[in-house]
């Protein structure tokens, strides 16, 4: 399957065809997502929690995003890859944002960058766009700034918040963002934003009215033990499969059943003969 273009994503929205996105953080996750026909890969800074074990996405660095971004692009087989700008990399100035953004795109080969915020992001979007970098704006529950939002809670449940989200969506579209990620936005508000914008909206915990959906690879496949927010549906239980496989490996090693001859490199009769009395036998 060839890489989706931004124009094609807009067309999909216009035609009511849903866009499928999931996170990918390295070669195997990107390869699996690509093989499954996922449209867009997101190298999310969720990697900080999911694969690096941080408490939040706040500590994630530009270097870590570049390290994982390169691997995901290599594994993605030409899929459209969006790379998250981590906390602190776009908060100082337009110039600093551009310096970090250019580095992230040049060093990874990602197709686009994603930034979290509301309408205050508009100047950042403009300056990245002027440099030719496509931008996804992530609004709603923005994990990099949950303390300011009062914790991990649904956004847009009251008129003031709903107006803020709708205005932000318009301002970011107008600034040149080509896609919006709506995280944990009340379903009707997300549907309103999706109806009022021409750029695709990708929801996570924001209802079916969005133009596509994104989930974290490890969450949707049941690999993120103990993480079960109410919006998350697990589509497979790879954790159990992995534990059974590892237990079977342990048992086979302890019992001596593994490795058997088929998984070893025994000498041929001639090779053994040529070694004379050198070798210990019977083990
Ligand atoms: O970092 C991430 O994985 C994300 C998605 C949850 C949208 O931003």
Provide the descriptors you would attach to this structure in a database record:
elongated; 43% helix; 283 residues; binds 3-methyl-2-oxobutanoic acid; 8 strands; eight-stranded parallel β-barrel; alpha/beta
Q: How do you describe this structure in short?
A:
This protein has 283 residues and is an alpha/beta fold. 43% of the residues lie in helices and 13% in strands. Bound molecules: 3-methyl-2-oxobutanoic acid.
**Which ranges are low-confidence, i.e. pLDDT below 50, for 5 or more consecutive residues?**
none
Continuous helix count: 12
Q: Helicity, in percent?
A: 40-55%
SS-based structural class? alpha/beta
How far apart lie the N and C ends?
A: 52 Å
Main sheet characteristics: 8 strands, parallel, barrel
Shape: elongated
Spatial strand order of the main sheet: 1-2-3-4-5-6-7-8
What's the overall average pLDDT, rounded?
A: 96
Bound molecules: 3-methyl-2-oxobutanoic acid
Rg from Cα: 23 Å
**What order do the SSEs take from the amino end to the carboxyl end, as H and E?**
HEHEHHEHEHEHHEHEEHHH
Which strand-content bin applies to the residues?
5-15%
Beta strand count: 8
């Amino acid at each position: 399957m060839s890489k989706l273009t931004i124009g094609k994503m807009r067309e999909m929205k216009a035609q009511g065809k849903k866009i499928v996105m999931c996170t990918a953080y390295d070669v195997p996750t990107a390869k699996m997502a690509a093989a499954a026909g996922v449209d867009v890969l997101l190298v999310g800074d969720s990697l900080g929690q999911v694969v690096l074990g941080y408490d939040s996405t706040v500590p994630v660095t530009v270097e870590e995003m570049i390290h994982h971004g390169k691997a995901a692009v290599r594994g993605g087989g030409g899929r459209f890859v969006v790379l998250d700008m981590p906390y602190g990399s776009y908060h100082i100035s337009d110039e600093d944002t551009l310096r970090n953004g250019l580095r992230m795109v040049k060093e990874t080969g990602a197709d686009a960058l994603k930034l979290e915020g509301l309408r205050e992001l508009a100047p950042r979007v403009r300056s990245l766009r002027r440099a030719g970098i496509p931008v996804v704006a992530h609004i709603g529950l923005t994990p990099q700034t949950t303390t300011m939002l009062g914790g991990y809670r649904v956004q847009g449940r009251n008129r003031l918040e709903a107006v803020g989200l709708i205005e932000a969506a318009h301002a970011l579209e107008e600034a040149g963002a080509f896609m919006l990620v709506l995280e944990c936005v009340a379903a009707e508000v997300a549907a309103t934003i999706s109806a009022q914008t021409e750029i695709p909206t990708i929801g996570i915990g924001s209802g079916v009215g969005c133009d596509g959906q994104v989930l974290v690879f490890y969450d949707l496949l049941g690999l993120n033990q103990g993480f079960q927010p109410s919006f998350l549906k697990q589509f497979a239980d790879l954790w159990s499969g992995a534990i059974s496989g590892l237990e079977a490996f342990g048992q086979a090693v302890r019992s001596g059943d593994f490795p058997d001859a088929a998984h070893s490199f025994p000498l041929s009769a001639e090779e053994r003969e040529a070694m004379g009395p050198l070798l210990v036998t019977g083990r």
